[in-house]
Amino acid sequence: MEYTVQKLARMAGISGRTLRYYDEIGILTPARINSSGYRVYGTAEVDRLQQILFYRELGVSLDNIREIITAPSFDGLAALKEHRLKLLDKKQKLELLIVNVEKTIVLTEGRITMADKEKFEGFKQNMIDSNEKMYGKEIRAKYGNERIDQSNERLKGMDQEQYNQLQELGAQVIDTLTEAFANGDPAGELAQKTAELHRQWLIFTWGDYSKEAHAGLARMYVDDERFTSYYDQQQPGATKFLRDAILIYTGMKK
User: Fold this and answer.
1) Which of 92, 108, 146, 240 has the most CB atoms within 10 Å of its CB?
2) Nearest CA to 199 among 209, 189, 207?
3) What is the DSSP string of 97-136?
């Protein structure tokens, strides 16, 4: 079976412009160009488009998709199995949020009562799942499964007020870090206030606190680009500044 741009776009639920752009960037080229100059796509191109759309649904950038699907080692079947697992994980998260929304609707209508902490179960679980996906392997290797599992349980057990305080502290860390970074002194008052706020933020989920663990986490922020990208997203270099401030705060600066 062969398809023109418009037919394939209509079948896939995307625009013809998107297909032409995919051709321009080399991620999906047509099987051939017919005598009238129109792009024509066959079964292989349909399968590749399906893969591209799966990756896009999972939030993968086009540059990364191109690297993945054009690699000599790319295995379409293995990729489909991976897509399935990731989509099932996404489905589970969405179902949890849907249940949470449905409960809230019924609560608003006055048909049930709902504990405050229930209102945030979906959001907290999504936060835990996201952290596990992005950083789980590294932080579990560094701090051990027991500590991370306890931290996750503390987060899930938070009531509305505690959850709001955690979110507020996280925002304060970013705001104060931004202001302190502009001053340029990790030993300054604002930078040390940032380190103190970061300590308070950690205690919310860790439960206990040690200067060594705090300093170790700060070093990990710099060593792992995934952590660095979070604090550097507005000000490049802010992660290293935060690390230095925490090392001074904990007395671990060498």
Assistant:
1) 240
2) 209
3) HHHHHHHHHHHHTTSS---GGGGGHHHHHHHHHHHHHHHH
Can you give the pTM of this predicted structure? 0.45
How far apart CA 251 and CA 254 sit, in angstroms, is: 9
- 153-250: CATH architecture: Orthogonal Bundle (1.10)
Domain covering 3-69 in this structure, CATH number? 1.10.1660.10
pLDDT, tens digit, 9 for 90 and up, residues 145-169: 766 666 666 666 666 677 778 778 8
- 38-88: per-residue pLDDT in tens? 999 999 999 999 989 988 887 788 888 888 888 888 887 888 788 777 777
Element (H, E) at 32: strand 32-33
Domain coordinates in residue numbering, the chain: 3-69, 76-114, 153-250
HSE (side-chain half, CA atoms, 13 Å) at 221:
21
